[in-house]
Amino acid sequence: MSGPISQRLKQLGIELPTPPAAVANYVPFVVTGNLLFVSGQLPLENGKLAVTGKLGDGVALEDGIRAARLCAINLLAQVRAAAGGDLERIRRLVRLTAFVASAPSFTDQPKVINGASDLMVEVLGEAGRHARVAVGAPCLPLDAAVEIEAIFELS
């Protein structure tokens, strides 16, 4: 399908991957009414974890921002699957909940997650402006540096 969202992705040089499969006993997304809940996505690139470790302890801020951006791309891939391939069904991104693997002294989680927030606004325009939670965590699955889940409203 081709529409404004698909065109923006193309302009940004982003090709959505095949959505990653769940790695445990859960589903990648749940649709209830017009809300889509997408399970936490990791910074996968070409099917592999691209950024591992802890921010403030070996992982640079720029790498964390890149990890958050990759999580956002994987969120959009899951939305495409949930919406039957039609990203134009996105009415808005409601909320991102983000976890940043962090050293105890690291306090720039919001800057890290801007990597995802900025991408969502670039791709979705005003519909990409969202509520957000960005918290530090001592450890994430598979030693990922970032994990992000989302709630979208679909048409």
Automatic annotation (TrEMBL):
Domain Endoribonuclease L-PSP/chorismate mutase-like stretches: 8-146
Entry-linked SUPFAM superfamilies: YjgF-like
UniProt organism field: Paramagnetospirillum caucaseum
Pfam families: YjgF_endoribonc (PF14588)
Database matches in InterPro entries: Endoribo_LPSP/chorism_mut-like (IPR013813), RutC-like_sf (IPR035959)
Protein name per UniProt: Putative translation initiation inhibitor
